[in-house]
Amino acid sequence: MLNEVLDYIGLDLNKKNKCLECSKSEFNITKSYDNSMLYKVYKMLPIKDIDILIGMSDRTTDIKERYMLAKPINEFIVENRSDFENLVKLAKIEDIKKIEEMQNDFNKKSPYFIKYDKNYLWQIYYSKENNKYFMLFPAREEGETSALFYLIKNKLKNSNEKIYVPVCKEELSEEFLLSTEVTDLENYIWLFTKKWPNIYEVEKNKKKRLYIIGESKVKEDFESKYRIEIKNKEEADNEYTLFKALFILSTETSYKFNTVIDDNGNLRLEFDDEIIQIDNLTSFISRQAMIQKQKTKEIKDLIDISKNSLEKVKKEIKELNDIYLMQEKQIVMFLNCKKSIFKRIKYFFKKPINSIHYSIDKKENSNQENLVVDKKIEDISKTISYTLSDLVKICKDNNKIESEYKNINADLGAMKNKKKNLENKIKNAKIYLEEIEEHKKSIFEFWKFTKKDENPYLNEGEELVTNKKIDATFNLDEDFEEFAEKVDFIQKQKLSINECNSIFCCRYILNSINSILLGEDEEKNLTSDLKKLKEQYTGNKRTEIFGDIQEDYTKIKKLKSKKHRENKKNIYSILRVNEQTTLEEYKNSVENIARYLNEAFNKIISITCMPVYFTEYNPNKFIIAEIDPKKIDLKNLKEKTIYKKQINENDHVLYFSNIAYYDNLNKTLPNGMDESTNILFKANKIKNTNEKFINILEENGLYDVKINKIKVIICD
Prior knowledge:
The protein is of the alpha+beta class. The protein has four domains: about 1-165, no CATH class; about 180-275, no CATH class; about 295-450, no CATH class; about 475-715, Toxin ADP-ribosyltransferase, Chain A, domain 1. Helices cover about 45% and strands about 15% of the residues. It contains 19 helices and 21 strands. The chain has helices at about 1-10, 65-70, 75-80, 80-90, 95-110, 145-155, 180-195, 235-250, 280-335, 340-350, 390-435, 445-450, 475-495, 495-520, 520-535, 540-545, 570-575, 585-605, 660, and strands spanning about 40-45, 50-55, 70, 125, 130-140, 160-165, 200-205, 205-215, 225-230, 260, 265-270, 275, 555-560, 560-565, 610-615, 620-625, 640-645, 655, 680, 690-700, 705-715. It has a five-stranded mixed β-sheet with strand order 6-1-7-8-9, sandwiched between helices. Strands 3-2-5-4 form a four-stranded mixed β-sheet, sandwiched between helices.
């Protein structure tokens, strides 16, 4: 093997090779980099311009130590021949040929997402001091050596070929953006996508490009990769300005932007279904400024209305207080007069109890209207142009007056509550005075009676909070594990073995089950499903004897990191299907499965509100839906249409949890949904649908992508 590799690359260890001669360049590391900064710059480099240094270290060794231990290749071969021969023994001619093919392709086109598999093998650095590129190969790395010997082979040929490689720890040039601006841009994009982007610089054929690569959530919980290509400084300034402006709006105001992928695969931000780009950014800012100014005017008008209402209610409260005080005086007068018969007669002749007249104005201001801001302003004055600072200032001013409006409304609510209490007290006082002879003769009893219908008082500015139920929001990333364990536990408790088996069978014979339940196309679907089962049947005597028992129950298995001793279910064992099964026998099995499935479906309800996604809509039939939209196979999606439906609490559903896939004879099966994130439900007739279109990048190999335009139908 040693001689085969040496012959293939044309290297004679007994001769000094002039093509490999090099000297150790000066090399200073002035910055410490984490792994994410290792491969930020990619270049097409002439092979003959790359020196080869080999050191007795591995890739994890500190770079300064690696460089100190490294020697030029000719020197290393002489002084460490046995170590070099060990490197040759690790090499494979097939791997070297693969690199040759890959680099030939790279000469024609670059990877769409810039980096490529095993790019770390090259370990190429740049010496600014000597303007030299060199490979710093770690001889103690027990991995692939194909990149090293590919380089040696081509240097020995003294060819003019170029290779597309990352330059380790190379800083981005500042031809497009300053290093501080690049860092800022990464922060801006992270705010919107919640995933850190990678920014690469590619130099090829003396032309430089800047690429921003990453992933982002798009509409309706889908995810997609994106790539922004920047060809010159102007484009770089435009992207930086756009993301910075929207970042400031998001952090300084209440504006929220959605991430979308445009028709070119770029990451873009959207507000109210309008994609914001550098060309419409100025008009967007001006239009939003005018909308906010209109909002300011409307809020101020509402504040005036609320203030007037507040003053009116305060005046009414004062009048009501006077009436109540008069009633208090009357009861006190009665208590004083009751001490003798003459004073009591004098009290009754002085002023009848019912002669106190008062009026309570129950009319409330009905002129106050809900705040409505019209966001479609068609005519924006061409003579008025607003800047970002103008918009931010207007928004902050709006926040202040909104706070003022909120406080005034809270005061108004408190005053109305106070007025209502006074009205109740006066009403009760009137009743008390009318029936005064029947009550205990005490002012305290009077106060107690008049306050019996009193609502709790609010301090001025304090809001009245009602006990309104807030629905929990299901977060797929944060809540799924706990949710999965809970639903699997419930199904283990409530469902029989046959009912769990029926869920499992839906993965294979759902058309047959639906046909039996609805009496539609029975023969067609049963025949089709049975044919597929027979075509995929790989059973033998062992299968017919053991059934679902694939292993004995002492064998330890794993579901992700969870250990158990259960066996996975087998569709042929459950249905009793083999190559000789007749259509009638199969139909009998499906009828039993359908009956168990209906029984199971009526037992299990959803424990939370959550969206689910499915690709085929069949009213009144069982449908398998996906909880995680990222798992939908978009490449094989025929109609490019996905349905989204909200599953509500207490809706009947079944989950493809662990108990649907495994038996649990030993009671060791972990709770969860480790095999699938699917559910089974029935969809009624779709009403009030809303359609949205999203773009998702579909990777077609290393070099290009396809923009998938997906229609998402939101079902009610």
